Design the sequence.
C-alpha cells in the first residue's frame, strides 16, 4: 500500500540549507592570510580548461600582476592551476575567476617557485569599483585589514568583517548540519544493480612510518577496515569492495575503473576524481599523496620518526610531520564516494583535516562513524528490506528518484530518537519544482513503530 505522511500546502520546498561561515572557516581565513608569503593585486588575462596526465579536468588561470603588495616575487605574470572535480569545503573552495577582472590574491610561493592559492575562494578577493567582493568595504580598508591580521593586531570586528566577504559554502546540508551531500544527483547505484564500486588498488608508493614501502596486503587491510565502517551501517546497503588482485596503473579519469593509488599530486591533499552516468556514480578514483608516510597498524604508534613535510599547501604549517593514519583518512575519503561532503562538526568522520592543528597526522577518531555520518549513509543508500531499529539519534528518509521509499520489514524509532521524512519534489508543466508530499511505501506486513519523534508535517 501507499502510505502518505502529511503534505505541505506552503511554498517551502526543502528543509535543506547551505553551510555558513563558522569558527572553522574563520580560522582557515586567518591562517591563509597569516601564512601567505606573497600578496598581489592582479588581473585575469586568460583562462584555459585542460586535462592532466590522469585525464582529470583542471583550470589554468593566468594573471598580469598590477601591484605586489607583499613578498619577494618579481613575477610580471602569475599562473594558478586548480582541479575542477574537487570537493568544496571549509578548507578550499574552487575559485571562480572572471576574465578581465581584478583581484587581490593571498598566495604561497614554494621553494621551487610554484605558486598556490591555498584556500581557493577563501584566498581571492575581487575588486569591483574599488570595493571588495561586491560589499561596501573599500580596497584601501581591505588592505589595512589584511595588514592588521598579518601583524596579529586585528579585533573581533575585523574578523567578522573578513567573514562578511566570503560567500556561502556549497554542499546541501541535511538535518541541521548532521551531514552534507555533494549534490542531489551524486549517488550510488540502487541495491541489486551490479557492479557497485569495486576498487582496484596499486599500493606502490605507499610508505610506512619509517619510509619503507608497504605491502599490498598491509595497505589493503587498512582500506578494507575503512570500507567496513560504511558497508556495515544498519538500514543501508553496502556499496564498496576492493579487488584482491594488485593494480599496476595510475588513477585515470573517465575509464569506468575505480582505483586507489599513491602518487605525487600537488593539486589536493588526497586527490579524488569521479565520473557519473545517468545520475549515478560509475567510477571513483582516490589518490593518496605518495610524499606522505602512513600508519597501517590497528593502533597509532607511540613513537615514530618525523620527516620533512611537503613544501606545498596544505602542509605548509609544520616543517616536519609524522605518519598519517591510513584507515582514518581512507574512511573519510570513502565517505566522499558515498556522496557525502565535508561537515562542520569536528567529531565526525566527514570533518576535514585541519592541517594547521598540532599533530594533525596522529588523529584516528575518523575510523569510526559518528551519528551524522551514519545518517548520511542511510540517506544516500537506504535499505529497509529487513526489520531494524533506527541506528542513529537522527535519521532522514528520502524519496529516491521521485519514487516513494520502500519499507519491507518493521522500522522502529526508539525513544529519544528523531525520524524525518524528506519532501518528495516534482516538477510542474513549466519545469518549476513543486512539493508532492512525503511518502513511504510499505509492503504487506511491514510497519512503522514510533517511540521517538516523527517529523513529517
Sequence:
Amino acid at each position: 500500500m501507499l502510505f502518505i505522511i502529511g503534505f505541505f500546502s506552503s511554498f517551502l520546498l526543502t528543509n535543506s540549507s547551505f553551510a555558513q561561515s563558522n569558527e572553522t572557516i574563520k580560522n582557515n581565513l586567518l591562517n591563509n592570510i597569516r601564512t601567505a608569503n606573497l600578496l598581489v593585486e592582479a588581473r585575469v588575462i586568460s583562462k584555459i580548461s585542460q586535462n592532466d596526465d590522469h585525464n582529470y579536468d583542471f583550470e589554468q588561470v593566468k594573471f598580469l600582476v598590477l601591484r605586489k603588495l607583499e613578498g619577494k616575487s618579481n613575477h610580471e605574470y602569475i599562473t594558478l592551476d586548480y582541479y575542477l572535480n574537487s570537493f568544496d569545503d571549509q578548507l578550499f573552495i574552487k575559485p571562480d575567476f572572471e576574465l578581465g577582472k581584478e583581484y587581490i590574491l593571498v598566495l604561497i610561493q614554494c621553494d621551487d617557485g610554484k605558486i598556490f592559492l591555498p584556500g581557493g575562494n577563501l584566498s581571492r578577493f575581487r575588486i569591483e569599483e574599488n570595493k571588495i567582493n561586491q560589499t561596501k568595504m573599500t580596497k584601501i580598508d581591505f588592505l589595512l585589514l589584511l595588514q592588521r591580521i598579518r601583524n596579529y593586531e586585528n579585533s573581533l570586528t575585523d574578523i567578522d568583517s573578513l567573514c562578511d566577504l566570503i560567500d556561502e559554502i556549497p554542499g546541501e546540508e541535511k538535518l541541521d548540519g548532521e551531514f552534507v551531500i555533494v549534490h542531489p544527483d551524486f549517488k550510488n547505484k540502487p541495491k541489486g544493480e551490479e557492479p557497485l564500486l569495486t576498487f582496484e588498488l596499486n599500493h606502490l608508493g605507499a610508505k610506512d612510518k619509517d619510509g619503507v614501502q608497504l605491502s599490498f596486503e598491509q595497505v589493503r587491510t587498512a582500506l578494507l577496515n575503512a570500507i567496513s565502517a560504511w558497508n556495515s551501517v544498519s538500514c543501508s546497503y553496502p556499496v564498496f569492495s576492493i579487488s584482491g588482485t594488485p593494480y599496476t596503473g595510475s588513477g585515470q579519469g573517465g575509464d569506468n575503473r575505480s582505483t586507489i593509488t599513491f602518487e605525487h599530486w600537488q593539486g589536493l591533499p588526497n586527490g579524488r576524481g569521479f565520473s557519473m552516468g545517468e545520475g549515478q556514480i560509475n567510477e571513483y578514483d582516490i589518490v593518496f599523496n605518495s610524499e606522505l608516510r602512513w600508519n597501517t597498524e590497528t593502533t597509532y604508534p607511540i613513537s615514530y620518526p618525523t620527516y620533512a613535510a611537503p613544501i606545498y599547501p596544505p602542509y605548509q604549517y609544520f616543517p616536519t610531520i609524522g605518519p598519517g593514519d591510513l584507515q582514518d583518512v581512507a574512511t573519510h575519503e570513502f565517505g566522499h564516494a558515498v556522496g557525502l561532503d565535508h561537515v562542520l562538526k569536528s567529531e565526525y568522520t566527514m570533518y576535514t583535516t585541519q592541517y594547521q592543528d598540532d599533530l594533525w597526522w596522529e588523529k584516528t577518531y575518523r575510523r569510526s562513524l559518528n551519528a551524522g555520518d551514519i545518517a548520511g549513509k542511510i540517506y544516500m543508500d537506504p535499505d529497509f528490506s529487513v526489520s531494524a531499529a533506527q541506528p542513529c539519534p537522527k535519521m532522514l528518509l528520502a524519496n529516491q528518484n521521485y519514487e516513494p521509499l520502500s519499507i519491507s520489514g518493521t522500522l522502529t524509532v526508539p525513544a529519544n530518537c528523531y525520524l524525518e521524512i524528506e519532501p518528495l519534489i516534482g516538477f510542474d508543466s513549466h519545469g518549476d519544482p513543486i512539493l508532492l508530499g512525503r511518502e513511504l511505501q510499505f509492503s504487506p506486513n511491514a510497519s512503522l513503530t514510533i517511540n521517538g519523534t516523527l517529523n513529517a508535517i
User: Anything to note?
Assistant: The helical segments are 23-35, 139-150, 156-163, 216-231, 326-338, 371-380. Residues 216-231 form the longest helix (16 residues). Confidence is low (pLDDT under 50) at residues 1-21.
